[in-house]
Amino acid sequence: MDEEINATSGEYGNIKISDGVVSIIAGIAATEIDGVAGMSGGMVNGITEMLGRKNLSKGVKVEVGDKESAIDLYIIVEYGAKIPEVAWKVQENVKKAVETMTGLKVVEVNIHIQGVNFAKEEKEDDDRPQKSD
């Protein structure tokens, strides 16, 4: 069940944003970055599970106070991507999106690289002409 994480008292009442909303915003913002293959749902039988678009919040852990938040993202990167550069861009994009949409101050965006997606390399190998015997 989602916790109510942000309560803002205004002239007409309170505004409360659930942690699930922040998780989805962060997940979408992370997958917008080139080099991010997807979000990770953890390890399944020793293999990292990559989540589809419908499960973006599963690869996100959010800790929120009244006005600040810390976000942990578990991502899978594309083979060949510069991991530090991708992680930095994800941090910037997630911070900007969450702060703009919720009004929370994001104090941390921690990136956990859970795996590397080799799909593009395998596809390129499949496109090469095959030798016939």
Can you lay out the helices and strands and say which pair or pack?
Elements: E1 4-9, E2 14-18, H1 19-31, E3 36-44, E4 47-51, E5 60-64, E6 68-78, H2 83-102, E7 105-117, H3 119-127
Parallel strand pairs: 6-7
Antiparallel strand pairs: 1-2, 3-4, 3-6, 5-6
Helix pairs in contact: 1-2
What does this molecule look like?
This protein is an alpha+beta fold and 133 residues long. It has helices spanning 19-31, 83-102, 119-127, and strands at 4-9, 14-18, 36-44, 47-51, 60-64, 68-78, 105-117. The chain contains three helices and seven strands, in the order ββαββββαβα. Strands 3, 4, 5, 6 and 7 form a five-stranded mixed sheet that branches. It has a two-stranded antiparallel ribbon with strand order 1-2. A hairpin with a 4-residue loop joins strand 1 and strand 2 (14-18). The longest helix has 20 residues, at 83-102. The model is unreliable at 43-48 (pLDDT under 50).
Overview in brief:
With 133 residues, the protein is of the alpha+beta class. It contains three helices and seven strands.
Rg from Cα: 18 Å
The structure class reads alpha+beta
Helical stretch count? 3
The largest β sheet comes out as: 5 strands, mixed
- Termini gap: 60 Å
- The H-and-E topology, N to C, reads as EEHEEEEHEH
Key words describing this protein structure:
elongated, 41% strand, alpha+beta, two-stranded antiparallel ribbon, 133 residues, single chain, 5-stranded mixed beta sheet, 32% helix, 7 strands
